[in-house]
Design brief:
Strand order of the largest sheet: 3-2-1-4-5-7-6-8-9
Number of helices: 15
Strand content: 15-25%
Helix content: 25-40%
CATH class of the largest domain: Alpha Beta
CATH architecture of the largest domain: 3-Layer(aba) Sandwich
Number of strands: 22
Bound molecules: S-adenosylmethionine
Number of domains: 2
Structural class: alpha/beta
Length: about 500
């Protein structure tokens, strides 16, 4: 075994001993999940090394036992980098600090590295600002590697307040670490992080994405096929990815994509996807894993409208049933109105009532009711096992003309339509295979988020109406929707 491998083996053994001795519940408080040895090596392998630089300053924020630092230094030395290496590690959990010190001591002796451990809060010990006004005062690094803590925090905790510019609502520590990493990165240099997938879409991360793309471009994304094997011996319910970004405004032509089933990296597949296919004009990030998916994105991203711009916004149902029990009824009574749940969506239509409890609402509160109109309803929640993520049903007011109002439970989304043609046309779109695939690429979770749906590229309202006319009178099957859609979206 050569010296560098010895450093990594040593660090790995020391880390494993710590993991086995520290209870998981205790580590969870700090968002502590340790990277596996293979993952650390893979992350280090993604950096482009500038051999001409006489000195490299490295940063590992939330260093834990320092495994990522050790793997990166090992990679630098092994590939022939002979300049000076300085590494700064931030870690604020006193229990892991002796382990970190032991690993970095060993590393500094073996591979000629200067290290500094900052027993401080990475996010609060420096001033974050979106503007570069204080650029000269910010400490900058040539390479930043990290596995930041995954922890949702309140919007009023000090970390969220200090970085309010990138937050919208309650943030997660991982993207605050990422934003601070970008802040600490020298121009033209790279950052490699292992993070959850949730930042790629959705309103919570919009401000962060704006900050990311104002400063950086994506160079590489690695995705795992199976989510429970990424962290050594740990089951982590978040789906993770490894990402390399570069601080520059020059977009590369392609993003390098790679996949492997597990963090053993035995079966790595690589491919290139056009930059604008991965990073869409609306700054959503699409995790394309093959040519077929790139094709889906190409077809949909060529559409010019959105539901929002067509004035067909999807909204979330208004009634939280367990909080409004007093207005719910199990059967028709005087003055009651239909309350629509996601279980009323059946075979492309809304079938109400079906004989389940609380299907009626009696209220004079206008905020609990909505106009009886034509609608397209879409389930908000589906299970991983279900074939389709987008499951919708057409509701026509003419089927329930005795009611002035209806109401909706908050586990269903709805789009109000002014004609049946529009409801049928939206059904063609949202019940097609193409849009279901698109939504899966956009959002790895099983929830249907109306903000995302409202920003999906769709045809114009007139074309949607036309598609609806073509569907009326036919069976509401996925195949019929695909046949119609294919004529309009090439
Ligand atoms: C997900 S662990 C990763 C550890 C290590 N980098 C690895 O990959 O194995 C995140 C680490 O960040 C530390 N941490 C959490 N919040 C921190 C903060 N605000 N400042 C510095 N370190 C923090 C935790 O104690 C934990 O060790």
């Amino acid at each position: 075994m050569n010296l560098s491998q010895e450093c990594l083996s040593n660090a790995y053994n020391v880390t494993s001993a710590f993991v086995n001795s520290a209870p998981k519940a205790e580590r969870k408080k700090y968002g502590q999940f340790f990277t596996s040895r293979k993952t650390a090596e893979f992350m280090a392998s993604l950096f482009d090394i500038d051999y001409e630089k006489p000195e490299l300053r490295l940063l590992d924020a939330g260093a834990g036992s320092g495994l990522l630092s050790v793997a990166l230094v090992e990679k630098l030395r092994k590939s022939g980098y002979n300049g000076k290496i300085t590494i700064v590690c931030y870690e604020n959990d006193g229990k892991i600090l002796p382990v970190l010190k032991e690993n970095l001591d060993y590393l500094s002796k073996g591979l000629d590295v200067i290290y500094e451990i900052r027993e401080d809060n990475y996010l609060l010990s420096q001033y974050f600002s979106e503007s570069d006004l204080f650029g000269d005062e910010v400490e900058k690094y040539d390479m930043i590697v990290g596995n930041p803590p995954y922890l949702k925090i309140g919007k009023d905790v000090p970390e969220a307040r200090a970085m309010a510019e990138v937050c919208h609502g309650a943030p997660n520590l991982y993207f605050l670490f990422w934003a601070m990493g970008i802040h600490n990165l020298k121009d033209g240099q790279e950052l490699v992080y292992i993070i959850p997938r949730s930042w790629t879409s959705g309103a919570y991360f919009e401000r962060f994405r704006q900050y990311l793309f104002k400063n950086c471009v994506i160079c590489h994304i690695h995705l795992f096929g199976s989510r429970d094997k990424v962290f050594d011996g740990e089951v982590v319910l978040q789906e993770t990815m490894i990402i390399k970004i570069k601080k520059t405004s020059q977009k590369p032509k392609y993003v390098e994509m790679s996949t492997s089933e597990t963090s053993e990296f035995r079966d790595v597949k690589r491919y290139e996807v056009g930059y604008n296919t991965i990073v869409a004009a609306n700054q959503f990030v699409f995790l394309v894993t093959n040519e077929e998916e790139a094709n889906v994105l190409g077809r949909i991203n060529s559409q010019t409208d959105t539901l929002k711009s067509d004035n067909l916004k999807m909204r979330t149902g208004i009634i939280v049933d367990f909080r409004t029990k007093e207005v719910l009824r199990d059967s028709q009574v005087d003055g009651s109105y239909p309350l629509i749940y996601s279980h009323h969506i059946r075979n492309g239509r809304v079938s109400w009532p079906v004989g389940r409890e609380s299907e009626y609402i009696v209220t004079s509160r206008r905020g609990f009711l909505q106009e009886n109109s034509d609608y397209l309803f879409v389930k908000r929640f589906t299970s991983k096992e279900e074939k389709r993520r987008l499951q919708c049903g057409i509701y026509l007011k003419s089927d329930y003309s005795q009611y002035k109002y209806i109401s909706t439970q908050n586990k269903i989304n709805y789009i109000k339509c002014d004609t049946p043609e529009l409801a049928y046309g939206l059904f063609v779109i949202l019940n097609s295979s193409l849009y279901d695939s698109y939504y899966r690429i956009l959002n790895g979770s099983t929830q249907v988020n109306s903000t995302e749906i409202n920003l999906m590229p769709v045809p114009s309202k007139e074309i949607i109406r036309q598609m609806g006319r073509e569907l009326i009178g036919k069976e509401l099957t996925e195949q019929n929707c695909n046949n119609i859609l294919e004529r309009w979206i090439k």
